[in-house]
Design a protein that fits this description.
Protein name: tRNA/rRNA methyltransferase SpoU type
Pfam families: SpoU_methylase
Number of strands: 15
GO molecular function: RNA binding; RNA methyltransferase activity
Distance between the termini: 28 Å
Structural class: alpha/beta
Low-confidence stretches: 1-56
Keywords: Methyltransferase, Transferase
Length: 355
Amino acid sequence: MLCGCAFAAQSVSPRLPFEIKASVSKLRSSSAQLPRTQIQINPSDDLLVNSSDKSPATRVSLPSHVNSITSTSNPFVKHCLKLRQSSSYRHAHGSVLVVGAIPITEVCMFQTNKKGITTEIECLLLHEEAQIPQGLESLSIRIVRVSSLVMKKLSGVQSTESVEAIALMRIPSSFIDLKDDKDIITDCNKWFPSSAHRVLVLDSIQDPGNLGTLIRSAMAFNWDGAFLLPGCCDPFNDKALRASRGASFQLPIVSGNWNHLKVLEHEFQMKLLAGHPAMTTQRPKPLSKLSVEFAQSLAEKPLCLILGSEGNGLSEQSRRVCELVSIPMAGDFESLNVSVAGGIFLFMLQSRSGS
């Protein structure tokens, strides 16, 4: 087990980035100058992405008469493509592209069945010949039909036969980005509203498939949330979303640094455990072995489980401050993939008391 592993001047509501133009005559009069979908830049929008991108987010207007898009050169298509490809662009606009009917439906099911966290579907892009996905028929959402070329462009897959729907959604309020140490004064009790009894901490997990799988596993085994240390990939990366199958929209996720994690540890008196290979040349301290007895001894103790990057394992900080735990394995296997090892840890250490 290598446990290294926002768009025009006016909007329908404060959170919807699409301006629905009411004046069709105005649109017709300007149709010779404007494309079917227009882009307007509002320099006063001061939505900062992060410390590496200080440019304000632009707002995109999708006129109300647009119900189909056939060209990949359409400005709205370009906007959606950039949402899929760029983390900074996603977070500047607070929107994310979810590809595939099954993940979209799972997200909506999560919202209906779990904890009341809601996610706004800003727009549902459907293949021109596709039916509305089962379970979404009753939702009041805007539907735009798109051609196979547009679907292929936005989905990022060669064959569009298996991709009939793409949803433009708001990044959920359950995701919190603690940008710097100024956010340490933030009330950490709000990070994981239900409980902080079991929190998965990911240390520089860069592979989006592994990160998404771990978030899904944490959700499946009733963990209370995930904390992403620096170096982790974006949980709303398209590959991470496919792997998490909607869990990224339901499980509370906090992105922060070690100073934030120390605040959480102190507030809830949490024990820090870290997965570590048993067979390694690095042996900074004794290793505990994961077992039923070990898990039972920690049943009432609030825990942070830290899993490290695929290539480099745990960071020096994690190895220094955490109790190291290994998964017993037969033979001379050095490690497991971090998502496999993480699944075992998450199952064994899950809360049995319903905390």
